[in-house]
Q: What sequence folds into this?
């Protein structure tokens, strides 16, 4: 049983990315550190996709893309406003604080993984002036850690609060593609057009082996970012092996095809679980299903060889670009046998 629901990063490279990787290797030598033709093309394709002249950087992973962006926006006495379950607050070993030289996290525990304008307002105004850290960045995760998706209007309302309090807006888009697939809108409509200044755009969970993009829509914020990337050890000397698969992902909307497929498999899984009487802890709006399965049922499924993680009082089931309908159906059959 090779396919699992533990994480969308358990999947391999999509065929288009792998083919590009082999193609660029067959080309022989090329100049390093991103001064190659593939990197130039990847940057330009991202600008075209987002319909704006953003400053684009490629780093190895998602933690780096988030932490370097936030570290560049914040000074040591600043704070990042984020959801309590957010990756930047709970899964990055304090990286944003490290790269900013000390910035703190101010978090809110709002429902369904989504921040609200009221919560952001409260955190932005809770300080005691010079005695407290100064809120400087709002970090939104799209899709959220609970698989939910902010609408364009919701993002606009949140970024309006941020702007009113002098904060810049960062978006952790590790699953940005899945949110676009869900809302069927343009990437610009969920980012710079609704007030996002910097986007960490995920490629790995969408079918790459390595390499996330950082897009600075407000280009002034990107000043000297290349030094930050280099100092953090995130400047790939053989950058073309990251950029060529990115180009392949952006060609013919492969990124969207992959995201739509992962979302559809999550929908299939959720519908099947619902038919078996298992509740959902959040609406399914991207490629994750958060199921209210008892620890006992989870344990019996683990004993049958299934891998997935507990989440709160239930569990998290992630679908990937390559999750097969047959895998979902086999899992559902095992759940059915256990709940019968
Ligand atoms: C996976 C993920 C990341 C990236 O994490 P890395 O393991 O550092 O690549 C960032 N944010 C969210 C919400 C994620 O799910």
A:
């Amino acid at each position: 049983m090779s396919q699992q629901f533990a994480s969308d990063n358990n999947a391999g490279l999509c065929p288009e990315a792998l083919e590009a990787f082999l193609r660029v290797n067959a080309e022989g030598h090329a100049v390093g550190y991103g001064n190659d033709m593939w990197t130039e093309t990847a940057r330009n394709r991202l600008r075209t996709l987002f319909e704006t002249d953003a400053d684009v950087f490629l780093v190895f992973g998602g933690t780096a893309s988030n932490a370097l962006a936030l570290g560049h926006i914040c000074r040591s006495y600043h704070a990042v406003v984020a959801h309590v379950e957010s990756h930047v607050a709970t899964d990055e070993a304090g990286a944003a604080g490290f790269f900013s030289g000390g910035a703190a996290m101010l978090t809110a525990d709002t429902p369904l993984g989504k921040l609200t304008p009221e919560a952001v307002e409260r955190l932005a105004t809770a300080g005691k002036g010079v005695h407290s850290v100064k809120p400087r960045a709002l970090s939104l995760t799209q899709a959220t850690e609970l698989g939910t998706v902010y609408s364009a209007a919701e993002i606009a309302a949140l970024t309006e609060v941020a702007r009113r309090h002098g904060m810049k807006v960062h978006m952790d888009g590790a699953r940005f593609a899945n949110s676009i697939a869900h809302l069927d809108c343009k990437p610009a409509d969920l980012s710079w057009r609704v007030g996002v200044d910097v986007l960490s755009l995920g490629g790995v969970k969408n079918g790459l082996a390595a390499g996330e993009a950082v897009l600075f829509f407000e280009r002034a914020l990107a000043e000297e970012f290349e030094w930050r990337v280099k100092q953090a050890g995130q400047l790939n000397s053989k950058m073309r092996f990251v950029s060529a698969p990115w180009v392949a992902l952006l060609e013919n909307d492969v990124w969207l095809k992959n995201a739509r497929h992962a979302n559809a498999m999550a929908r299939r899984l959720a519908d099947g679980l619902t038919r078996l009487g298992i509740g959902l802890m959040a609406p399914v709006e991207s490629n994750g299903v958060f199921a209210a399965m008892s620890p006992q049922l989870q344990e019996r499924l683990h004993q049958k060889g299934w891998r997935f993680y507990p989440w709160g009082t239930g569990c998290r089931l992630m679908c990937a670009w390559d999750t097969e309908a047959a895998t979902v159906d086999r899992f559902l059959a095992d759940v059915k046998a256990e709940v019968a």
Observations:
- Strands lie at 55-59, 78-83, 104-108, 134-141, 168-173, 198-201, 212-216, 288-291, 309-311, 314-318.
- The two ends are 23 Å apart (CA to CA).
